[in-house]
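Hey, can you fold this one?
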Amino acid sequence: MIASPGATMGVDFEQRVDYARLRQERLARAQAALEQSELGALLLFDMNNVRYVTSTHIGEWARDKMARFVLLPRGDNPILWDFGSAARHHRLYAPWLPTSSWRAGVSSLRGAMAPSSGISAGLARTIAAELRARGLADAPIGIDVVDWPTVAALQAEGLKVTDGQQVMLAARRIKTQDEIALLKHAAGMVDAAYDALYRALRPGVRENELVALVNQVLYTLGSDEVEAVNAVSGERCSPHPHVFADRLLRPGDQAFFDIIHAFNGYRTCYYRTFVVGSATPAQVDAYKQCREWIDAAIAAVRPGVTTDEIARLWPRAEEFGFADEAECFGLQFGHGVGLALWEPPIISRLVSLEHPEPLEAGMVIALETYCPARDGYSAARIEEEVLVTETGCEVLTRFPAEELLVAGTRYYRGVDLLVTSSDGPAGGGAAAETASVGIRS
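Sure. Predicted structure:
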């Protein structure tokens, strides 16, 4: 049991995140999933899988380079071939695996080093030798993501290459107590970012400035990486462009944001919607409908419920202005959250109605809904992260979203400042009394 959610410091007076336990339990789950498969080993290039199995991280600059790779043989410790001097660093500072697990190695860097360089062939020879030494060379080897020359080189060594990503996703599907604590802390950091964002929203600020503000808040709080901040306002709200711009916010604009970042690798996906200065009935109605759709989904979450049951609670594409489910994919949506932004289960009318999956206790799922307003350009977007519990779910995202919030309400009407006195004009005497100040919303 984690007695305190504190995750940024280790202390002697409370039980907090146990990183040693986190490392042990993640590796054990990956090894168990491998044992339950037909594979002899896993060869992993996906940074999320590398971190899950080895508990190492060398910066987000490495995420899309496929420069690091891990071999997890059946019945043995993983071996990580890391980027240059990182391997020596692990030998000094990562004692949870034997020093033989930390090796320097080079991949093709997503094909940047062509097949003619011999890099892919050398990698394949190394992997084949490790498998032969363990009597695993005749069993299939599962790979998550890789470039084609590496696949061809492994096959040239006589290895049977197949999909390994599903094995790893199965291992990562249910979160440990320490993973849940880290996911909660990551969400709490976004709570703080939204508070700063709400206070900064005003006419004249640009979407990109708000993105910069969120980055500053999160990195100050200890984020590993701010992967993306969607900042979408005014006429850009409908249809959803999924990217921020340099648009200038104006009075009456509806604006929604998605904050995606990682703390110790564990991610958030967390939308909120506001209006600037004042709200129209169309904007309020869109938000109310968006909230009703997400509340219905949250109320349905519990172990044993299948993803199609939740997807059916959301409108068909044609009901909110789209031609088909592919065109509106990701707008009425659910997805697992962990070391990756999108993990199983995926919830969408596009796939869930015909391929349902059951929810299980220990899953962490982001549920998101979208509703365009009848004015033709505004829209509401809400997302909540939920932990599936034994009896239902716990909402992890806490910035207020029950009703549409109006930001930048700093204006006073003249009628609110009128003097109610028979003694003369405003300011004309000790007997003057003023009405209470009202703020336009």
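Confidence is low (pLDDT under 50) at residues 424-441. Let me know if you want another pass with a different chain boundary.
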